Amino acid sequence: MKPAAEFLASLVILGLVVAAARAAPTVPAVPTVDQCDWAGIGNGGNGASRGVRPVYLRCSRGTVSWRYPGGALRVVLSSESGNGFRGCIKVSGPARVYLETGGALRQLYAPGDGKHEALHRCFHSRGRVAGLFVEADSDGKFIAVGKGVSKSRVELKYDLEASNRLEIEEEEVECRPCTKEELAKAYCQSDLVARGTVSAVEARPELEIAELVIGLTKTLRRVEETEDNEIESGDIDFRKEVRVRVPASCDARHGQGEFVIMAKRRLGDLTLACAPRLEAWAEAVRELGTAPCVLRS
């Protein structure tokens, strides 16, 4: 249990967070310059910082790195989509993360909440912005590392995906087969499109997912991330085997034959978008009149 002084300080910070959430406009003023990442230093450990610092981000993915955490951050995530978006975060370090929803706060992450640290914590926004409150859990106390001593550090990675789906429909939408139109869109927007066979399906209950172990036979499309931009390339045998995540609720099974795997990179992990059999994909390519990019099989 926290000492009385720390407990009262925590209540003061959380009170400021709730007040800020209720007072915040529906669409806050966001700088016009895109900002994907934020790195900053909070309270140095003297317990003096009690404010809420605003952080505005306008990219689909990025990282918040907070050293010497103290007080709280209000992280405003913005998407170009006007129909809402699905956001996922992965957090490490001494902080509690809340989602602003209807003037209240819903907890997404807390140290020791019983869930695996690598679990994707996902939420939905019905507008083009979403507010996250990141409250320092330890007020920047020292943590011993080997023979030295370093301050605590919080890291929050986020990934936003445009969507007009309702949250209650998400499980059904993620598990059902893709339509021809969805196949074309997934092909053009995925970070990896490759032909391959499924050699195994491994359950990961602690992450609420299953992993498809796929032996690649041909790479059709690949987007590599660099520090400055994204590079698209194809027909490159960069790996012989990949692991692709699917929700555990989809009850994925091992199937025979060759598939076209379309996957997006989410928080560093490949997540399945669509996986038609090669024959079905070749038929869809022949039948589709238009597509956002050149389709290949």
Write the layout of secondary structure elements.
Blueprint: H1 4-23, E1 38-41, E2 52-57, E3 61-67, E4 72-78, E5 85-92, E6 95-101, E7 104-109, E8 121-125, E9 129-136, E10 142-145, E11 148-151, E12 153-162, H2 170-175, H3 180-189, E13 192-204, E14 209-225, E15 230-233, E16 241-247, E17 259-266, E18 269-274, H4 278-287
Parallel strand pairs: 1-3, 2-4
Antiparallel strand pairs: 3-12, 4-9, 5-8, 5-12, 6-7, 6-9, 10-11, 13-14, 13-17, 14-15, 14-16, 17-18
Description of the molecule:
- The chain is α+β, with helices and mostly antiparallel strands.
- It has 4 helices and 18 strands.
- The strands form 4 sheets. Strands 13, 14, 15, 16, 17 and 18 form a 6-stranded antiparallel beta sheet that branches. A 5-stranded mixed beta sheet has the order 1-3-12-5-8, with no helix packed on it.
- A hairpin with a 2-residue loop joins β6 and β7.
- The longest helix is centred in the first third of the chain and has 20 residues.
- The radius of gyration is 21 Å and the shape is elongated.
- The N terminus is likely disordered.
